[in-house]
Amino acid sequence: MKSPDYKRACCLSGRKLFLPPLIYMIKYYFFIAFCTALALFAQKSYSQDTTRLSLLFLGDIMQHDSQIKAAYNYGTSGNTYDYTSCFQFVKPYIESVDLAIGNLEVTLAGPPYKGYPQFSAPDELAIALKDIGMDILVTANNHSLDRGGKGVDRTIEMLDSLKILHTGTFRDTVDRMNDYPLIIEKNGFTLALLNYTYGTNGIPVPKPNVVNLIDTALIRKDIIKAKDANPDFIIVFTHWGQEYQSQPSTQQQMITEFCFKQGAQLVIGSHPHVLQPMEWRKEKNQLVTYSLGNFVSGQRDRYKNGGAMVRVSFTRVIKDSVSTTTLDSAGYILEWVYRTVDPKKDYYVLPVPDFENDTTGFIKDETSRLSFKTFIEDSRKLLGKNNLQLSEINTRPATKPDE
What we know:
CATH topology: Purple Acid Phosphatase, chain A, domain 2
Structural class: alpha/beta
Shape: globular
Strand content: 25-35%
């Protein structure tokens, strides 16, 4: 029987004082711990790590006699050249991406500097390309052997000295064996870059040099080797097609499908010197640009006086330890080559987003303004009608991503 004092302790102002048994306390703390663990599990399940990589592909980088003459520094001691002004307006676009890749369709064979038909550009061209942010140049094209084996070797030597990555031509088979495919690592991504040309203008490849020629058996073998590096993307940069034709040839289309079937995800084309259509096959994570036209050249005829830069972005999402990598954006930026009408006749690469509605009067003469307008209209008509899921980028670039 409970004492009167105990009863008084259990009743205060008519309310019963509840003392929970030990079992209820245990259940209560177990419930709190379970909810906390569940919340932590849910947070881990829904958290994800996302990384990105942006690339810019450029068309044909050429140097005709008129360009070399325009870059010459008159009135200075020694034979020096300066391309700074030529690329000043396109530089922000190249600096805005993680990697910029273009087709070097000249040799750096040293003097005498000449344009068509056997190109040898001043070293200052490569220095300027390095300065504007070019990371990689492909060198297998029909002008690779314009200055013979010595031209191949010196081009490689010059690019190496500037720390510009390159592929497509090699000093010898040992270099190719060790350095091909070109494996690039950036922002946690691994890329494999391959490069081939349809030919070398009938010039035999001198031993011990190697110039990669388009051959499906060779391409298959090289892609198999590229897969050993477990790349996120395999890129095939091809020099092909018919010059000055705005549509890809049957051979271009067949080679593209072959590369995709072997495991490549991007096929980038050069050589026609005019724009050709582009396709982004989103559901398959594949992209092809049949021809990017001329990035810079001395060709002034309609359709030949400009090109496009294609900007793509890769994304990797890691969720629950599962990594998914996709090509999540792609678009093109039109660019036109302007030659002034003053005595100097300078060349400038003008991005369309900067100059289509320019009010500064940078393009001085009416003939050039009309040519610029015609290039834009022709390009938009061709690509707007024939492109697959690639639209024009009309905005100026943001700043370059953090390293």
